[in-house]
Inverse folding.
């Protein structure tokens, strides 16, 4: 924790251990959230690096409020990146996504489904996609409400609409 | 009463205790709301399956190094300390995952049981670990005894099996045995077992009391284990008490609900750290890559209890008696379970052919 009145250099040195502990605790889950949007492990790590860099600037060593912030920032940054990729080269993005997450056990069908998921996420509203990723990334309703700055009661509504929209998008994709 | 809103029906899927009792009762008795709830649960399940696909594991050390360099370069911050693994070089850890928890969860949902290999990735708070039949089959293939032999844990009270990298020995103070009463089971194991006083609908009286004495499993790493050659790890689990409930209607012997209490497992390593052994075991060719990634994603193995959750089941985090717990249920809601560890180091498992709300209610009475 940065102490008031300490010199900048002193502050920086003091805040690093706290921030490192914070980073180590949350880095994997932030990468995982980003990867669930992007389907690209390397891109997800890039997003996580940007997010933690921004978090360091924003919170310094005072990281109490940072866990929720880095998560929603990762989701937003990933969605922006996903939409940017799609605008630049939709076809390339689809191919890249299919290959990026493929493990040895993945079937062609699974890879196609994941690629369809990225496309569907990109078509959903930002709010819908965000609540989907946060909830299925393991955050509770209360945590989601806090980071999205909405009431807890709205989370269920948003989530239901988002899941119904995703289901519709996936159904549509499977028929095309 | 008005029909439940979509928001309420959705929350009922994830956090049933957050929904008022009156609403829950209405939904249970209202055909229209039940049908809508099924739709909501279906969409939620599909989204969950799509969004929880296995991901690769980020290297935290590398990530911190990269960020440290960037902070130094762009942020004007003194260089971060050299990255070093923060995992404790623990030669003895308190493990809370384990044989019995794994076996119980799988038994609850009628799947095959856990094997012994992943128990070293032990534990201090619960977290869901998705595992499927192929994972079980592949892990079982590492040990030279048949898959069916692992269904009830260890095939015999004592014995050994060969591994590609060494030998597995196991021994138990005695064989599992049925007892006449809970008091007898408590006397044999020394455990104090709390049973629920309020049972879910359809659940009859307890009909089975089984005790499993303490079990120890040792892996001695041989020459093929490379740098781990000569080291060993001992995982000790139990004793445990299993209480099975019959049906209130029809055959009283038909199991409807089960409660399992078990002393938390402990793991002791010699000649290597738990982290080294974890890394080695996860890199074995027989260990499914996706499962290894899931285990790594759990984080610090000294603080996480992996609760094996069969693929396709819905899992979420709840609190039982102030302790974090994992609640799992089939997508149909017909079977469910809850796993947690109390402050006294006892791992509790509640599960059966009842809905999630019922198992959480039973868990709350115990916890």
């Amino acid at each position: 924790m940065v102490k008031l009145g300490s010199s900048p250099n002193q502050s920086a040195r003091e805040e690093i251990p706290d921030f490192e502990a914070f980073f180590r605790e949350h880095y994997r889950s932030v990468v995982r959230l980003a990867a669930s949007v992007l389907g690209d492990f390397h891109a997800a790590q890039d997003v996580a690096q940007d997010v933690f860099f921004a978090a360091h600037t924003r919170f310094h060593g005072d990281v109490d409020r940072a866990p929720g912030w880095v998560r929603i920032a990762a989701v937003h940054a990933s969605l922006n990146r996903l939409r940017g990729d799609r605008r630049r080269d939709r076809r390339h993005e689809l191919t890249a996504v299919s290959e990026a997450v493929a493990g040895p056990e993945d079937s062609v069908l699974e890879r196609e489904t994941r690629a369809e998921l990225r496309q569907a996420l990109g078509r959903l509203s930002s709010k819908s996609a965000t609540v989907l990723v946060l909830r299925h990334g393991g955050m509770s309703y209360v945590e989601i409400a806090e980071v999205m700055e909405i009431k807890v009661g709205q989370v269920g509504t948003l989530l239901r609409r988002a899941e119904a929209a995703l289901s519709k998008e996936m159904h549509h994709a499977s028929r095309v | 009463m008005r029909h439940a809103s979509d928001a309420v029906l959705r929350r009922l899927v994830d956090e049933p205790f957050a929904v008022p009792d009156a609403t829950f009762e209405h939904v249970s008795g209202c055909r229209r709301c039940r049908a809508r709830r099924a739709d909501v649960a279906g969409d939620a399940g599909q989204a969950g399956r799509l969004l929880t696909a296995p991901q690769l594991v980020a290297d935290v050390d590398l990530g911190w190094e990269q960020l440290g360099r960037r902070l130094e370069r762009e942020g004007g911050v003194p260089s971060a300390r050299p990255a070093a693994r923060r995992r404790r070089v623990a030669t003895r850890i308190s493990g809370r995952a384990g044989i019995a928890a794994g076996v119980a969860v799988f038994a609850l949902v009628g799947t095959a049981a856990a094997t012994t290999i992943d128990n070293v990735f032990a534990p201090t708070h619960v977290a869901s670990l998705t595992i499927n039949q192929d994972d079980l089959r592949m892990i079982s293939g590492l040990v030279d005894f048949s898959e069916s032999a692992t269904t009830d844990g260890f095939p015999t009270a004592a014995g050994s099996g060969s591994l590609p990298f060494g030998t597995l020995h196991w021994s138990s103070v005695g064989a599992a045995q049925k007892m006449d009463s809970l008091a007898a089971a408590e006397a044999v194991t020394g455990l104090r077992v709390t049973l629920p006083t309020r049972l879910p609908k359809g659940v009859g009286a307890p009909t089975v009391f089984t005790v499993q004495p303490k079990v120890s499993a040792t892996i001695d790493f041989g020459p093929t284990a490379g740098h781990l050659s000569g080291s060993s790890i001992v995982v000790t689990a139990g004793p445990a008490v299993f209480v099975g409930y019959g049906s209130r209607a029809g055959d009283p012997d038909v199991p409807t609900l089960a409660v399992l209490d078990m002393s938390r497992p402990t793991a002791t390593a010699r000649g290597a750290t738990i982290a080294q052994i974890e890394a080695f075991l996860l890199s074995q060719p027989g260990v499914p890559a996706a499962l290894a990634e899931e285990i790594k994603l759990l984080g610090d193995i000294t603080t996480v209890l992996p609760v094996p959750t069969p693929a396709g089941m819905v899992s979420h985090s709840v609190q039982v008696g102030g302790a974090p717990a994992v609640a799992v249920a089939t997508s149909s809601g017909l079977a469910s379970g809850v796993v947690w560890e109390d402050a006294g180091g006892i791992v509790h498992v509640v599960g059966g052919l009842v809905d999630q709300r019922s198992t959480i209610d039973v868990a709350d009475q115990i916890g």
